[in-house]
Amino acid sequence: MAKQNEEGDDFLENLLVLGSYGKVTGGVETVMHSVVPRLGKDFEILVIAPRRRRRFHRDFRDANITVKYQACGTIPRLTVSQPFVKLARIWRRILKEVPSFKPDVVWANDESLLMAARLAGFDKIVTTMHGLTREAIAAEREVMNACEWAISTFLLDRFTREALKQASVITTYSNYLQKRIESLYHPKVPVHVIPNGVDPTLFHPVNAQKQNVITYVGRFARIKGVHILLRAMKIVRAKYPSWKLWLVGDTFDQSMEYFTSIYNEGVIWTGYIPHENLLNIWKQSKICVVPTWGEGFEIALMEAVASGVPSITTGVAERREIYKDLVTFCALNNPADLAEKIIYVIENWEEQHKKALKASELARMKFSWDSIANDYLGILRHML
């Protein structure tokens, strides 16, 4: 249970964290792996991390942090089952761990994990929303069966609404998303804004010979706009055939054949690159493009900005709030406009590079993981 320090203030003795964890390029994993080790050494932290394939990850302990992986996955050919399977399996794993680890506060990193913690009997739960499920489903409409899409939208939206009723505190990464959560789900608890971040010691400008390369880092999905980028690249290479596109990652929401059928000339699929090695990618790349339309705070984009790479992303409300003048904005779901912005940066690269170096300094000061971890720690301690 929680102890008291000399001033009489409560502080944590045990913290249970539920969420994806590991050294990968994925958003939630990066948040978790960047924040949790910075929370402090004066209390024990148990991380239960859902994974699709348990055999590829081994439990480990590092200082005061114990990480245990739990296989989850989905029911075959039933995509909508994923959050419910995760809820059930993480709930059972929590019950298994609770006799030897009794947390003062739980930090759950999505709605399924929030419900699992509540069903396990915890009432002090901080949950972080990394995006809106309804927007992710909307992006998949063209590649899903119409009936499955309608059922998924209905069930997952209702699931989110019911889950948020169980939270003690909700956090999210932008004022725009805060207002969307409040207007859509009407939670009865406060919604705090804590942005995602960047490690300034890992991502920073490096003097190196750059190639004529445009780079995208992330998972390959329609919600990420990869199909829009490939169509834009066809236009770009018609004018500048020497330029190439690097696609970094190994997670596909749609098949690789779906994307290669759109356009594949001058496209290099690098596969998975460890997070700590991404600076090597950015120091060779002249442009970063992240054409996502359903998610607001792309960590890979912020890491590119911190590395001094001229960057382009879609100018929806969330990203305009977060990135402001740090990047170049393009129209949503518009290959021609994206191609126009890429060509503009190519033709004015020296000027754009100077702007990117100034943006790097601002990004590394404002979005350091150290200050963001302190914000989370303040929320967790306030729960006591």
Features:
384 residues; alpha/beta; Rossmann fold; 2 domains; 6-stranded parallel β-sheet; 14 helices; 40% helix; 18% strand; globular
Describe the structure.
By secondary structure, the chain is α/β, with parallel strands linked by helices. It folds into 2 domains: 3-197 and 369-382, Glycogen Phosphorylase B (Rossmann fold, 3-Layer(aba) Sandwich); 213-366, Rossmann fold (3-Layer(aba) Sandwich). It is 40% helix and 18% strand. The protein has 14 helices and 16 strands. The strands form 3 sheets. The protein has an 8-stranded mixed beta sheet, with helices on both faces. The longest helix is centred in the middle third of the chain and has 19 residues, at 146-164. The mean pLDDT is 88.
Brief write-up:
This protein is α/β, with parallel strands linked by helices and 384 residues long.
The count of strands amounts to 16
What are the segments in which pLDDT stays under 50 over at least 5 consecutive residues?
Answer: none
Order of helices and strands: EEEHEEEHEHEHHEHEEHEHEHEHEHEHHH
Which radius of gyration do the C-alpha atoms yield? 21 Å
Number of helices: 14
Q: Tell me the β content.
A: 15-25%
The strand order across the widest sheet is 5-6-4-3-7-8-9-10
